[in-house]
Amino acid sequence: MVGKVRLENFRASIEEVDRNGIKGAIIEMGVWRGGAMIVAAAVTRQAGSNRDLYLFDAFETIPGYGRFKNFLENSMEEVQGNFDLFGLNGPNVHFVKGLFKDTIPSWKKGTPIAVLRVDGNFYDSYQDAMYYMYEDIPIGGIVIFDDVMSHPTVRQFWKDFKSAQNLPEDLNRIDKHSAWFRKRAQTKIDQSKKQPPRDVNT
Question: Does this model's pTM top 0.90?
Answer without folding.
Answer: yes
